[in-house]
Design brief:
The protein is of the alpha+beta class and about 200 residues long. It contains 5 helices and 9 strands. The protein folds into 2 domains: about 100 residues, Vaccinia Virus protein VP39 (Rossmann fold, 3-Layer(aba) Sandwich), CATH 3.40.50; about 90 residues, no CATH class. GO terms for molecular function: methyltransferase activity.
Length: about 200
């Protein structure tokens, strides 16, 4: 067995493997990054960016965060402002504004935004927002742009979609993949899913 470590984005890394490795491959994507796409976008990404780079004898091992009790998900994302994780989740979310300030010469006042997140059972995802605490205007100088925010208006920072069996079946069908198997932790909070390309 040969192991290849490639520093690249998903597409370039798989393209490298497609050209450099002629034997069958197991492509492993353990993180739950696919959850940052909604279900349609996730299937489109796999179908258009990943599947074309897999051969008929290749396999794809994909980590997916599974649906679970909203209380468990909300606790993991720090939605309770009485818990320490709320502070850390908020600081992580505010990093987006820090980056915009630094890279686009903006003047977001981080003290005027609070972290606001919740799991939507209907959507099957956690939505992370920063909510404006006042009416304000922010200048983004590099874009010659001013943006106004009303009090309580929110900026969507991040989404994290969770999966269950029907969602995985739909993902596989939409992405032109065969779902070969699944391994989970004993609580069924996280899964590793083995796929191959439909022939």
């Amino acid at each position: 067995m040969q192991l290849f470590s490639v520093a690249a984005d998903y597409h370039d890394g798989l393209e490298f493997l497609q050209h450099e490795v002629k034997s069958s491959k197991l492509v492993i994507w353990l993180g739950s990054d696919l959850g940052h796409f909604d279900y349609v976008e996730a299937a489109t990404f796999l179908r258009e960016q990943i599947v074309p780079l897999l051969g008929a004898n290749d396999h794809f091992l994909l980590g997916l965060d599974l649906k679970k009790s909203p209380d468990i998900i909300n606790a993991a994302y720090g939605t309770d402002n009485t818990k320490p994780i709320y502070y850390y989740s908020g600081e992580l979310a505010k990093n987006a504004l820090r980056r915009i300030n630094a890279q686009l010469q903006a003047d977001f006042n981080l003290a005027q935004f609070v972290y606001d997140a919740a799991y939507s059972v209907e959507k099957g995802c956690v939505e992370l927002f920063l909510k404006s605490t006042v009416d304000q205007m922010v200048a983004i100088h590099a874009l010659n742009l001013s943006v106004t925010f009303a009090k309580n208006e929110r900026i969507l920072i991040h989404t994290s979609y969770k999966y269950d069996e029907p969602a995985i079946v739909q993902l596989a069908a939409s992405a032109n993949l065969d779902w070969k198997g699944q391994w989970t932790d004993e609580k069924r909070w996280y899964s590793l899913n083995l796929f191959s390309v439909k022939t």
